[in-house]
Design a protein that fits this description.
- The protein is mainly α.
- 80% of the residues lie in helices and 0% in strands.
- It is built from three helices and no strands.
């Protein structure tokens, strides 16, 4: 599990995912990148929540 994310890490991670996860996260990209500029700590928590949510969906 990644401890500190950056906007660049987030965009690279999106490209490693399969559909429909990739499209969903691309739709969130502007929001997430803006959050990284405003509050990196909060953005890290948000990205980790997205990642956990996707991992749970994949297990179903």
């Amino acid at each position: 599990m990644k401890s500190q994310w950056t906007g660049s890490d987030f965009t690279k991670w999106i490209e490693t995912l399969d559909e429909p996860y990739r499209s969903y996260l691309r739709s969130k990209m502007t929001e997430v990148l803006a959050l990284f500029m405003e509050n990196p700590e909060k953005a890290n928590l948000y990205v980790q929540q997205l990642k956990n949510s996707i991992e749970l969906q994949k297990k179903k």
